[in-house]
Write a structure and sequence with these properties.
By secondary structure, the protein is α+β, with helices and mostly antiparallel strands. The protein is about 15% helix and about 30% strand. The strands form seven sheets. Strands 5-2-6-7-17-16-15-10 form an eight-stranded mixed sheet. A five-stranded antiparallel sheet has the order 1-24-23-20-21, with no helix packed on it. The protein is globular.
Length: about 425
């Protein structure tokens, strides 16, 4: 018998919407510090060598820990990026100055979603940044990442050029990203993005003409150009994801090809993708590597604006799951805690007599159950939903009238 756990207050809403709302996780499980790479916000240890399987073999590469040091609570508006040691420390410190809490997923961390025993489970974060992965994602990791985004998370995908295999395992970052999107058990190319297998450099000012675009014209400033230093492009597919769009191009200023930066939504979440790991590089990583400053020096500071605008957008509320608190209208709760009879019991309050529609959406954004209630009255109302025919998983329960909408999370087991 399936059980519906009341996690609206205790776990999912509290954890996903409140605690996670301010947290960004930077990945380091995919050999992001191998060879000349150093894609970490901070590292005080340099004793790591990463084999093709991601195992620790000893060496002299950066070995970032979960929490950067000195503590981010000591960062002020005037703190320099050299406060932390890492190839993308400037980006990390900019995030802290913006009010976000940042962490690193260490090399031996686990990429999971919905695993309560993992303290760095993706459900504890609003955004997940993966800068040039050098190891393939496992099937379980692919499912975790895609479900994380589908349930409201933000994913920042950074690739590099073709033939950029830094750990010698035979896989380059464009291939690794494409493998995640095309070889998984959740959806075929859910983001509508394919990284091209190219290697080129140049400065490009081909910007989409969209004055209100949050990536190009966000609170950090206007983006007017980018500089690729050995990067690639993307090809977009709006049939597989109608929301995906390019905003910076190698040639032209619109379209589905020659895309340098793209973004879109998937399910209840968001994603951003760029085709070069040079823009986040601030030139202050592992002293044993050849260092370049792409974050501030290249493209006249445009990379800082691009990356922070994109970060702010990923961290902004997802409008399709926002709740409305006006006059206590709706105020849905699920009861009892737990229910063991295969029913979702929903209670809500109305200030006016009006039709109510209840929809259950799965992690792909598909409507798996809909109930139209035309006899609701002022005051407390109840709806029962038989869940015996619904697959186990996390769902969004959306309750709406002509004037109000509320969405809450439920887990069906």
């Amino acid at each position: 018998m399936k059980k519906i756990y009341f996690l609206f207050v205790i776990l999912l809403l509290t954890n996903l919407k409140l605690v996670a709302q301010n947290k960004i996780l930077f990945d380091n499980t995919k050999a992001e510090t191998a060879s000349n790479a150093d894609w970490t916000i901070d590292s005080d240890l340099f004793n790591l060598g990463i084999g093709s399987s991601g195992s620790y073999i000893g060496g002299s590469q950066s070995n970032p820990q979960r929490y950067p040091t000195p503590a981010q609570s000591t960062i002020t508006a005037t703190t320099p990026e050299t406060y932390w040691t890492g190839g993308i420390s400037y980006w990390g410190i900019d995030c802290v100055k913006k009010g976000y809490n940042v962490e690193t997923l260490p090399w031996n961390g686990q990429i999971t979603y919905g695993v309560a025993t993992n303290p760095q489970d993706l459900s504890n974060y609003k955004a997940f940044v993966v800068d040039e992965p050098n190891i393939l994602f496992t099937a379980a990791q692919k499912t975790a990442i895609l479900n994380f985004v589908a349930n409201g998370g933000g994913l920042f995908m950074i690739s590099d050029h073709d033939i950029s295999d830094r750990n010698g395992d035979g896989y380059d970052s464009p291939h690794i990203w494409n493998d995640l999107m095309t070889t998984n058990t959740v959806a075929v190319n859910p983001f509508g993005i394919s990284f091209d297998y190219l290697n080129f450099s140049g400065t490009y000012s081909n910007i989409l003409n969209s004055p209100s675009d949050p990536i190009l014209h966000g609170t950090t400033g206007n983006v007017t150009q980018v500089k690729w230093s050995g990067g690639t492009t993307m090809t977009l597919n709006t049939t597989q994801n109608s929301s995906v769009k390019g905003v910076v191009f190698k040639t032209g200023t619109s379209g589905l090809t020659n895309v340098l930066c793209a973004y879109g939504t998937y399910g209840l979440g968001k994603f951003v993708a760029i085709g070069d790991s040079s823009p986040p590089d601030d030139g202050s990583g592992d002293s044993g590597d050849t260092l370049y400053d792409g974050y501030i020096t290249d493209a006249s500071g445009n990379h800082q604006r691009l990356l922070m605008n994109a970060t702010n957008w990923l961290m902004s509320p997802n409008l399709n799951t926002e709740t409305v608190e006006d006059n206590n209208n709706l105020n849905p709760i699920i009861y009892p805690n737990p229910s063991v009879n295969g029913e979702l019991n929903l209670q809500f309050y109305l200030n006016n007599n009006e039709p109510v529609k209840l929809c259950l959406y799965d992690t792909l954004g598909r409507n798996v159950k809909q109930i139209n209630e035309n006899d609701s009255n002022v005051g407390i109302n109840r709806i029962k939903v038989n869940t015996n025919e619904i697959q186990s998983g996390i769902y969004v329960c959306k309750l709406s009238t002509n004037s109000f909408t509320k969405s809450i999370y439920v887990v069906i087991k």
